[in-house]
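Q: What would this chain look like folded?
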Amino acid sequence: MRKGERINLFLFWLITTTITSLPYIVGWLTSNGNFDFTGLLIGVEDGNSYLAKMLAGAKGAWLFKTPYTAFPQQGFLAFLPYLLLGKLSGPDGDYQTRIILFHLFRIMGVGFCSYSIYRFIGIFTQEERSRIFALILSVLGGGFGFLYFLGFKELWSYLPLEFYSPETFGFLSFLSIPYLIWARGFLFLGLAKYLENRSNNFLKEGLIIGILWNLLALMQPLTVPIGWLILTVYCLIELILAKWRGNIDIRKSLFADLMKLIVIVLISSPLVIYTFFAFQIDPFLKLWQSQNIILSPSFIEYMLAYGLLIPFAFLGMLNNRRRSEFRFLIVWVCILPLLIYTPYQLQRRLAEGGIVVLSILAIDGLSRVRDRIGKFEIFWYSMNFITTFILLSGLMIAIFSKAFPLYLDKEDVQLFQNVRKLIPDQSVVLADWEISTLLPAHAPVRVIIGHGPESIRAKQIKDQLDFLYIQGDMFEFYTFLIDEEVDYWIIRKSKIPEFMKVGSNNVEFLHEIAQNNKYIIYKVNPLVMK
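A: My prediction, written as structure tokens:
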């Protein structure tokens, strides 16, 4: 990589970091005595779970145990980067320290992933301008999602993929999900090394890539088999073509590539195998897996997501179908629909990296017709960033509205301070869903709802709680607390259950330990109920 390219890449990192950090900076600058910015913007439920994992690390954990359930857990080797970051925040796991470390992890990931993608792109194009354009599209681009806000909501079953699928569009990860940025970076760095070094020293090269993909597995184990599959299909197709053409020299080279792939799989498989069997054996993980469902939307929605890229990407495929390195991209594009609709409950995750491949092909296809389309090139290129602009604009509106849970008011802050001060670590706390989502990020306690996948039986518990608040009686509620092993109950004064509105609010099995203008904290005393 030339010095000029390194400078351009550094500038791209600075610009991307600024774009993705600006909403957070504005959030902190607009905090005041009445509203504290949490440092989270998108996917607040998941964001708080990452901060909770960091807090667990600060308190000494080396294995992941979710605080979003009271279900017994053995511990599981997962989310290690967050546990390690938590240890850097000190034994108390100060919230502000953790959120700063979280964003430093994200910012460093932006630089690493940008470098990895740029290096991968460099295999397919020698023109620096095309490399940078493909990188910008890969990181900041979007699709036709902006049509959702122009009266075409019926085209989508929920929202455009640009707004909730970090696998489909990398910008969401760059904005808010650090471990996925690092995972994508390790994936493409490994792929770049594989395609760059086509020598017979398969053992050394396979070892290096295998180590890189072990680091990938620490970030996101599911992404490793995607890399295995793409390389396997590519190698087999190249071997078939070489045999059909009778080219013995190429067949020997491809045999070395296949041996390198075997080494990669062997070296990078331990954590993937461990994860697979853990989810088959561990009772908690089996329940977690059963309710962790992330299905792909309709094919039309993916066509809308990638619609701006597809026409030019198709041109890029046609123009380069005879080039071996481009056949790698073509193979990936061809198996992408099969990945997205694999009969697997996390199928949407399997779109990982597709935006990068389509961006490379689209920029190449565009370069072939640049002279014929004239200024349309600028128009087309600009359209790719409309949805990204809308997303950032929506975040700024949310920031200035000081909306909960992006901001916490004085009573919210005081509540979390009281929980840390008055409630012992690892106690089970019952609160409504919104507070339960936040609580483990602020205090080392457990909740029984608050995170869709990690809260075992979350829907059943929430439905039961809603029923008890409206139609239940005091004894039924007490039975619920004992069955769910609840030690403390946080109640909003605006959502007092019906059974507490009848007569006195003094309930025999509850002991008030703190309150403010919004919340009351009760200790559950199972000994006083006869």
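The radius of gyration is 26 Å.
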